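Q: what does this look like with zinc ion bound?
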Amino acid sequence: MILLAATTTATDSSSGPILAFALVLGIGIGIGIGIGIGIGIGYAIACVIWPFRACRRCGGTGRFLSPTGQSWRHCPYCAGTGATLRLGRRIFNHLARLHGRDRSQRRR
Ligand SMILES: [Zn+2]
């Protein structure tokens, strides 16, 4: 008499947790990409509305005071304006210049 013991079953229970993990990972990556795109769009809009930031060299004053505080000179980095273009606006202007849509260079 021969006895055969069935030790394995033909069920699909081993791939269930892996599929669930992949699904959660995919949803997480999708949410992360969506948040990143949202932050990027918000930064682009902010660079259109507020294109300048305070000059890092003079702190936005546009001047360097003498040790006595009575005389001063213009900041050479911002030409005395105290403002410099933000990085996003600089990229936007560069792209606009490449595609011929820069309003500051237009003659007519
Ligand atoms: Zn400055």
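The pocket of zinc ion is lined by residues 55, 57-58, 62, 75, 77-78, 82 (CB under 6 Å). The radius of gyration is 30 Å.
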